[in-house]
Amino acid sequence: xxxxxxxxxxxxxxxxxxxxxxxxxxxxxxxxxxxxxxxxxxxxxxxxxxxxxxxxxxxxxxxxxxxxxxxxxxxxxxxxxxxxxxxxxxxxxxxxxxxxxxxxxxxxxxxxxxxxxxxxxxxxxxxxxxxxxxxxxxxxxxxxxxxxxxxxxxxxxxxxxxxxxxx
Amino acid sequence: xxxxxxxxxxxxxxxxxxxxxxxxxxxxxxxxxxxxxxxxxxxxxxxxxxxxxxxxxxxxxxxxxxxxxxxxxxxxxxxxxxxxxxxxxxxxxxxxxxxxxxxxxxxxxxxxxxxxxxxxxxxxxxxxxxxxxxxxxxxxxxxxxxxxxxxxxxxxxxxxxxxxxxxxxxxxxxxxxxxxxxxxxxxxxxxxxxxxxxxxxxxxxxxxxxxxxxxxxxxxxxxxxxxxxxxxxxxxxxxxxxxxxxxxxxxxxxxxxxxxxxxxxxxxxxxxxxxxxxxxxxxxxxxxxxxxxxxxxxxxxxxxxxxxxxxxxxxxxxxxxxxxxxxxxxxxxxxxxxxx
Lengths: 167, 340
Known about the structure:
heterodimer, A: globular, B: alpha+beta, 8 helices, globular
């Protein structure tokens, strides 16, 4: 139980990279937790729990994709390629992910005010794009553009700081 | 494919607005190009970190003004994204003429009014015994999985009044899904607030107190889904959630160590209401965090709860004072424990 609680945030983030819709990813996290406990007797405590948990999260993501082919999702081959890459990077991922998260908090503070407002509304206040557009008197498409620019600005900020942080 | 187009496609996928043709194009690129996957991982990583409600990130952005149970006329401090400098105002303008008002539209500081919304029996004091079973077909009553309103006289005490809702048993949504959570719902008719909602500036805040008196961890959640003009009698759970126009949720995982006194904990979910909101669906639920493999029976049929409670469910609407002629609401409504 404690092991899962320690890893559930990173498992959720992993699922969100494959299945970006938040409610779907949370459902998959729940399914992953159930699968882990069903199979806990198979877990080798000598091995990292995170890697074992990611394995079940991948299974759940694949199952979701197969069951929801009519939904706006990537192809199965594309998902498999992303999963294969994730497995390759799994060794270094936790350290780098933690560092990126730490830097992201600082980069968020540096966003221009408009982007901060949209990012906070969309991600932390659970406002839909339509609601954000509604109250700001601009189009939904403009809000999507701001979100895209915000993510890019955050990415560039993190990548600028990563070499400094690891130096 | 050039990088700019790839970035656009990736972001449209992350936001759930990519067309079938765009999805096909993006999928083909990701299948064949390791550099495209690298770029996808980077953008998706940012989305995932923000969407996972990482508390350290939320803390990086100061919160919106919090509701008060003492005063209904709130004069918020200047929001953090208010364009207090030339630089930030310019940032709003360079986004284009269509969005020049965005900074002001979102953040202009105005006094706000907070009102209790008429949810039925939010303190579970009015009735005793089991609530209705099944997904509710109309507004004004609790209904859902097996749960009951019951008196709590000691250890645990209710969060308010004399009674609380006891979660009893989770039921599966359908034959193919395992029973994961004990869900309890209530529809709330917001049509009387159409005027306040019209501006698109109103926020709904759903708060609920939860208590887990057992040592096994349990996740509680309160969620509020908003809808336009739909007919509750024609809807079913969970398919109704696909028609939502906005939603807010908060999770709480808690347990009571052996020998400790159980404590109530309160969570609050917020959502900004689009101007055409007419109905809200409240959901409160308890879901065990499994600590051992479920048996065949619990997997497909039932999950029982032994000491899991909810109480003091409140739904409030917050809107700018200019939206309505009512500038101040009498203090009689201000007590958080008022029976609805």
